[in-house]
Amino acid sequence: MQETKKGKRTLIDASRLIIESMARAGADAFIGYPITPANLLYQYGAQRMPLMLAAPDEITTLQWMSGLAATGKVPITATSFPGYALMIESVNMAYMMELPMVIILVQRLGPATGTATCGAQGDLTLLRGNISGGHPMPVLCTSTFEDAWTLSAKAVELAINLRTPVVLLTSKEEVMTSKSFDMNTLPEITQVERKYYDMKCDGKYKSYKPTDLVPDFLPVTQDNHQVRINASTHDKEGILQHSNDEAMANTRRLEEKIRQKAHEYTLYHMEEEKDADKLIVAFGITAAAARDAVKQLREEGEKVSLLIPKTLQPAPQVYLEIMDSYKTVIVAEENMNNQFSDMIYGLNKPRNHRFVGGLGKMITPQQIIEEVQA
After folding, report:
1. Is residue 190 part of a domain?
2. Cis peptide leading into 34, omega within 30 of 0?
3. What pLDDT, on a 0 to 100 scale, did the predictor assign at position 346?
4. Using an 8 Å Cβ cutoff, are 143 and 287 in contact?
5. Both 171 and 224 in a single domain?
6. Among residues 6, 46, 127, 260, which one has the fewest Cβ atoms lying within 10 Å of its Cβ?
7. Same domain, 307 and 356
8. For residue 197, is it within any domain?
9. What's this model's pTM, rounded to 2 decimal places?
10. Do 220 and 174 belong together in one domain?
């Protein structure tokens, strides 16, 4: 990607920003199987990454990514729901093996193949429960071009530092829409420094012995130590075990490392209006409509605050605290069933919550305004 002069704008889409950001942060392989609406990410990934492999299907994609991650690569891919559905077993495998990778999930209308060229926000519930046992996997969500840049780098950082698959959630409109944009407004991105096991240490290397909840990494390609990578229940050495205390503690640690380090990636945008008793909550593409709605409402004298969540999984406690402090909460997301509120509150959604939903078309600022003023 060529740099632009200060103040000079260029026509660009979020797909290119995402790929460029991840490459600068340290991702060095794109493995993929083309699927609409993620095809631009596939195209740019092939052009930008040092290594690109075109897989014959999505299952193979994740298997190859796992193999490359074990050798020290930081692989990424891009897909949509039908492809991600095929990947889930292998995502679980990589999660258990503690292999870093990033999956860019471009939402589109479902169920099943749905409509490939129609955007949606229907995959949040899926991502909440896609790891067997209910273990959380980090999910970040973009809502602006700036997010496409900064959150993409953050996703790579999390994958490396926590040794886990990470999902960057976006949608068709975000990755396929070109806009005039000044690249010089974006911050610099530096490559993530990887932490490796010190091979000068005496003793036997244990593949899953944690340091601050995360095991030190060694690629299987080095010749100094044996590295065991295991997708079944295992002890610190990576040896298959089913019932001993060490193996069970190791499995519990998979959740603990993500939840206990959640403060490192709790990201959101809050526009608090003094004396406001109404709060609008929106993420992803719907956040753009929410911003416009808030601007218009304030121009009309309405006091209203805005919350844009960027970390979706595991759901940060701060969202609950913010929403509980308002008399009325309006959640807007492009689905039929208010998945964000279900994620936060389960079956006990408060009576003061209102929902603005949509199916097959983007939510407009006017829809949000009407619900605020209802």
Report:
1. no
2. no
3. 87
4. yes
5. no
6. 6
7. yes
8. no
9. 0.95
10. no
Containing domain of residue 335, as a range? Answer: 268-373
Residue 242: the pLDDT is 81
> How many CB atoms within 10 Å of residue 190?
11
Residue 292 sits in a domain of what CATH number? 3.40.50.920
Return d(Cα 208, Cα 212) in angstroms, integer: 12
Residues 165 and 283 in one domain: no
Q: How many CB atoms lie within 10 A of CB 259?
A: 12
* Per-residue buried b or exposed e for 361-374, using 16+ beta carbons within 10 Å of the residue's own CB: ebbbbebbbebbee
Residues of the chain with pLDDT under 70: 1-7, 202
User: Could you report the per-residue pLDDT of 29-41, keeping only the tens digit for each?
Assistant: 999 999 999 999 9
288 and 178 share one domain: no
What is the length of the chain? 374
Q: Is there a contact between 250 and 213 (Cβ–Cβ < 8 Å)?
A: no
Respond yes or no on whether the N-terminal peptide bond of residue 316 is cis (omega within 30° of 0): no
Which residue from 138, 125, 55, 22 is spatially nearest to 91, judged by alpha carbons? 138
Q: Model confidence over 231-282: pLDDT tens digits?
A: 999 999 999 998 789 999 999 999 999 999 998 999 999 999 999 999 999 9
Amino acid at 233: T
